[in-house]
Every structure is written in C-alpha cells, then in structure tokens.
Amino acid sequence: MEKIIIIGSGPAAWSAAIYAARGSLSPLVIEGQYSEVNQTRGTLPMGQLTQTMEIENYPGFPSGKIHDYIESAIPTDRVAILPPNEPEQRTILGAELVELIRSQAVFFGTRVVSDEIIDVDFNGKTLKLVGIDGNLYESQTVIIATGASVKYLGLKSEQLYKNRGVSACATCDGALPRFRNNEVAVIGGGNTALEEAIHLANFASKVHLIHRRDKFRASQILVNRLPEYPKIKVHFNYVPTEILGTQEKGVTGIKLAGTAGNTDLELPLAGIFVAIGHIPNTDFLKDNIELNEDGTIKRPIPFCSNTSAKGVFVAGDVADSRYRQAVVAAAGGCMAALDAEKFLAEN
Ligand SMILES: Cc1cc2nc3c(=O)[nH]c(=O)nc-3n(C[C@H](O)[C@H](O)[C@H](O)COP(=O)(O)OP(=O)(O)OC[C@H]3O[C@@H](n4cnc5c(N)ncnc54)[C@H](O)[C@@H]3O)c2cc1C
Predict the structure, then answer these.
(1) Domain 2-150+278-346, what architecture?
(2) Measured between alpha carbons, how far is 187 from 319 in angstroms, rounded to an integer?
(3) For residue 40, what pLDDT band results from cuts at 50, 70 and 90?
C-alpha cells in the first residue's frame, strides 16, 4: 500500500513528486509508456513539453547556453535521450526542462515505474489502479496529472513542419522571431482559436483566421471583439489540405479548400497555429470521477486540487482548459501534493 501515487510525467506530476518526496511521503510516479499508440496520441512519457523546442516563458531560464548545467544535473543515461544540443539553441528545450524537474523529484527519493494506468477503482478506502499489463497498485491517495493531448489536423505535411512553423500554442510560441512581423494563420473557430488570433495580432504582420464553417463556435463576446483587430482576416468555409514549406525555411504557406463551393486558396505564411482543441487524458478514469463538460476533471472546491473522489487530487492540463502552461501545471502539482499530504495527516 502506497501513501501517494502520482499518474503522469509532465511538469505537474514531477512537481507534485518533489513536494511529496520532500514531505517524506515516498511517492510513486507512474510515468506512462513508450508505445506507438502513445506516439500517435501525443502521450509519450515526459508529456507535451517534449513536443516543442525552446521554452522562453518558464521562470528561471533566461536566454543563454545552459547545456553544461543540464549535463551536470541530469543522470548520463537520461541525457542520452534528450534532443541533440543545437548550436543556435537560445535557451532551455522543453524536453530538457521536464527532465530537470524529473531529476529533482528522483533526487529527493521519488520512485518511478514505466506503466500506463488503464483502469481505476476509487470507491473504497483503498484507491486501486490497474496498469496496462495487469499490475495492481494500491494507495491511500492519488494525484492525477495525465495532461491533455493536442488535436492536430492529421495532414502529413503538418507532421513535417511541427516546431518549424507549425505550432499548437500561440501563447507559448507567438513571440518567437520566426513569427514576428510575418503573416501567420490560426486554424479553428472556437474560443481558443479566436484568443490565439488576438494574441498573435500583437506580433504578426497579419493573422489569417481559418474556419471550416460559416460561423464561429466561440463566445459572442470574442466574436464581437474581432473587428478591433484589423490585422486579423477571417476566412470562413475553408479547410487546410496541405502545409507548404521547404527543408531550409520550414513553413512557407498553406493550401486551403473551399467547403461551400468557394474557390480554393493558397496563402504565403511563416507560421500556422492549430487551435482545434485539446483532449484531456481521462479515458482510464471511466466513471470513477466527475468531469466538466469540456472533458477536464472537475474540482469541486475552488482553488483546491480535490476531485469528486475522496483522496484523489488533480493537477495540470487534465483539469485546465484555460491556461495550459507548464508553470501553471507545476504550480498545480505543488497544490495537489500539499492537499494530499493534508488529507493523509487528517485521515
Ligand atoms: C507544441 C507545444 C508547445 C508548448 N509550449 C509551451 C511553452 O513554451 N511554455 C509553456 O509553459 N507551456 C507550453 N506548452 C504547454 C505545456 O506543455 C503544458 O501546459 C504542460 O506540459 C502540461 O503539463 P501536465 O503535467 O499537465 O501534463 P503533460 O505535459 O500533458 O503530460 C502528461 C503525461 O502523463 C502521461 N500519462 C497520460 N495518461 C497516462 C496514464 N493513463 N498512465 C500513466 N501516464 C499517463 C503521458 O506520458 C502524458 O504525456 C506547450 C504545449 C505544446 C503541445
């Protein structure tokens, strides 16, 4: 019987583990598994940060060459799985950042298993988790930090230019030199797409907002704000069919097909932001926990990490459809570990 099990392997999980380990709770982290399915879904161990390159907005890492520090702080076998250090790298990579947080958790005594939880039973006093190969885990508390998966368009060309002009996060990447004073596109018609377009209007010379229907799904307040941003040009009734680019430059444009008899279009672009949604990773929870309408885990007590199940806490993007940032996920991990520690003390 464990005191605390943390499911996940992004900044939320490892930050929760740091706090739990330093609180002498000897946490066990179940970090997910390397598999083709997880590769396709974008849920490989170490989370979403491994899908991007430089992280410029996580506090504590100003621009500079930090590779020597990383090599000294991370065990050699883990350095070997990091992306190669590129000469033009300006600051920490996402994969390096999450690896540093993991190392800190392990340094304080966190135990890690490579397993994927596929079923849970939160009905009894003992919380039960089942791994993909049938292993059973029992614990007094559980922290769910399984993150979310980005929905991509599914185009072959999109895969080719990820991190080379194709991004799934304007808040994260919009200020990068590649996009500044250049034309970019946002694909989508919900709140996230409109918010991203408005955010990008601060940096780009023009923002093409491309939506497959003739009306936005976003809230009317956001839709009403669009005319305040003359840099945003809306293209209704278009779907992307190909992302154009070169080996040298990355993204150079996009081909769009009209969905309502309108003529196909080709736009020259420096960047494409896919904003068609996120899927919180909650399949394994089945009916054991209450979810919000958008699929995130419900937190019944404001500003706390409690869930609808006793002894089960939540952190990171799996419960967050608003901020979706590494620093917020890490903060959520801290909150969940402190809440779990308090629960253990009181029960
Ligand atoms: C392309 C891209 C660029 C980004 N850039 C930035 C940026 O510049 N700055 C920033 O702050 N944020 C950025 N983000 C957002 C940031 O990555 C996320 O907010 C953050 O990673 C969320 O952390 P998390 O711990 O909640 O979960 P995640 O990072 O989503 O990790 C969760 C992990 O848990 C594991 N898991 C899932 N289900 C199970 C299971 N059933 N059993 C065991 N393990 C499981 C999986 O390995 C999964 O990957 C970016 C995201 C993307 C996609």
Answers:
(1) 3-Layer(bba) Sandwich (3.50)
(2) 24
(3) confident
